[in-house]
Predict the 3D structure of the following.
Amino acid sequence: MKKLTALAIATLLTLSPSANADTPPQQKPSSPQVAGSTVLAVVGQRSITLDEVNQQLNRPDLRAAVDALKDQPAELAKLRESVLTSMIDKELLLKAAQSSPNYKPAEIKKEVDTIIQEQGGREVVEPILKSYGTSWDDFVSDMNDRLTIEKFIEKDLLANLTVSDEQLKAAFTANPNLYAEPETVSARHILVLLKPDAPPAEQQKALDKIKGIKQRATAPGADFGKIASETSDDTASKVDGGNLGTFQRGMMVPEFEKAAFSLKVGEISEPIKTQYGYHIIKVEKHQESQPPTFEKAKDKVRYQVMAGVHDKALQEKLTQLRSATKVELKSGSTGQS
C-alpha cells in the first residue's frame, strides 16, 4: 500500500492543467494583497499568494525546469498554472483529511519525528534546508501536511479499492510485451582508468596494464574477484570483487554492453575501451529474454492496474471537493513575479 499512496501523492504534486479538466469556476477577477503578495487563488478561507507559488517554483526539483523556460514565457506561465493548480488541490485534500474521523494529529507528528530522526535529526536536516532557503518551521509544517494527505488517501480513498483477476488478465492480455522478462547478464569487471584525452603513451601504458591483469585472470585456478579487488580502479565495485550485479540492455555504455552480452558464461573478454578506460569483463550468468506469462507477471500487472484505479479515485475525489468548496481564481494567476 505504501508504494501506491506514494504514487498518488506524486501524481497530486505533479498535476498539469490538462489533467484537471474540471477546474474550479473563475469568479470575478480581483487583485487583493496579503502580506505584500498578490493573491492568486482563494480556497475556502485560505489564500494562495504569488510568493507561495514562486517558493514552490524554487524547489530543487522544479528549479531546472524554470531555468530552461526562462526565455519561453508562455511555457513558464503553464508551469506556474500547473503549480497553482497543484497547490489548490493540496489544500482541498488537506481540509478533507483534517475533517476525516481517521485524522490523528498525534500519530502524524510522531511519524514526522521518526522520519526526521531517520535522516539524522534536526542538526543534520536543518543546514540542508537552509541551503535551499527553506525554514525549519516551513519544512515541518509541509511534512505534516503531506503525511496528513497521504494517510487520508490511504485510509479514506484507497482502503477498500480492489481489482479482480478478470481485470488483471484483461490488462495483461492488452499489452503482454510490457511484462516480458528482459535479457540480462550478471558480470564482474576490472577497470584501468584512462582519461578520454590521454596522450598515446598513457593509453599504451593503460592497455599494457589491463593486458597483464587479463593474463593473471585467465591463468589456471585464478580468482577473478580477488584479482579485481586488488587491481581494479573502479572503487565502487572492487570492494565486491568487481561485481556489477545483473543488468539488461541499455544500462551500460555501448562498448561495454556489446562485449558483455556477446560473452559466454565464464568467459573473460579482451580489453574493452570505453570513456572510463580499459576493462576486462567476466560473465557469470546470461539469462535470455523470457516470454511473458500471466502468473509470473501478475504482481506487476496488479501494481499497474491498482495505480490507475487509485489515480482515478483521487481525481474523482478532487472533482467532488472542487464542487463542494468555494474556489476563486484571481486575475494574473499565472503572472510573473
User: Anything to note?
Assistant: The first helix runs from residue 2 to 13. The chain has two domains: 2-164+297-329, 182-287. The longest strand covers residues 277-287. Confidence is low (pLDDT under 50) at residues 1-36.
